[in-house]
Amino acid sequence: MESINVELGQRSYPIYIGENLLEQATLLNKHIKNSKCAVITNPTVKELYWSSLEKVFDEPPLLITLEDGEQHKNLDTLNIIFTQLLENFFDRKSTLIALGGGVIGDMTGFAAACYQRGIDFIQIPTTLLSQVDSSVGGKTAVNHPLGKNMVGAFHQPIAVISDTSSLKTLPSRELSAGLAEVIKYGFINDIDFLHWLEKNMPDLLSLDNKAMTYAIKKSCEIKADIVARDETEQSVRALLNLGHTFGHAIETFTEYKTYLHGECVGIGMVMAAEFSHRLNLISKSDCELSKKIIASANLPTQPPADMSKDIFIELMMRDKKTLNNNIRLVLLEKLGGAFVSSDYDPDILANYLDQVHQR
Questions:
Q1: Are residues 297 and 244 in the same domain?
Q2: Long-range contacts of 283-289 (CB under 8 A, 24+ apart)
Q3: Is 139 an active-site residue?
Q4: Annotated catalytic residue within 59, 87, 117, 257
């Protein structure tokens, strides 16, 4: 088992990475303050893992099963959690446990942030995307019809338990979606890791345990370092949103039904690289390499054909990074080096988006 610590003073917490961690009772139980806890999951994950996980508890937890999918990550679903916690007399010493992917993790974390003004929660991510990204860092939220993750809070978990064995049941499309977030770390922070990904992508797609454990640990190390320096995204943490401004617009336009989140991030990173090249920040060859690596993970690289320039701009204006009506984008000054900027000619962005729509 590998272990990483997210250094946030009194709110510091460990990330455990390894095989068959769901079966290790002491690993989970040492982070639970009392017996009052609830496991929040969805039908698919419940069918796969609940029978193994329930054996590690000293007393049976409350099991809350939510509908699966990004389209259910909203305030109505969140209220289902609150109702069951209240009906079962959960108090401030209770613990919530997120068993699932990014949607379950985000909603469980937000519920924990809000219930009685804040209770503990533990992340047990079962998808690659959630293991390398959404389970780490304390971003919790639900979606609004007008924008993704627009209602939420920063609320750190008390532990993250990433069982790599769970990836064996992951559909290939979900695996690729997770690899988008892994690739992101190479683009923004580590050129050597990016080249490692280029070389080892076949091993990752075939779930080679050694390669996958390294990729997860490396991704978590990069994110943990950034979160420790900027917990509430006042500066460098915004770099973790590479591709997300374009990607979130696509998700909102398609009502979270057409693409997985990681697929939209993959498209968004291609667009960020192309726009960076359009601004003469990176070379054409670097732009092409970016697209090649993303495509090698079996990710889409083109936005919806019916998504016009005006639609993109309208939806991107609602992005959380937008300030004073200026769309702030995470751009590449080199492979392995990103920055946040609104200091570009908006006509160049509009022209780029128009050309994307026409090709």
A1: yes
A2: 286/332, 286/334, 286/335, 289/198, 289/335
A3: yes
A4: 117
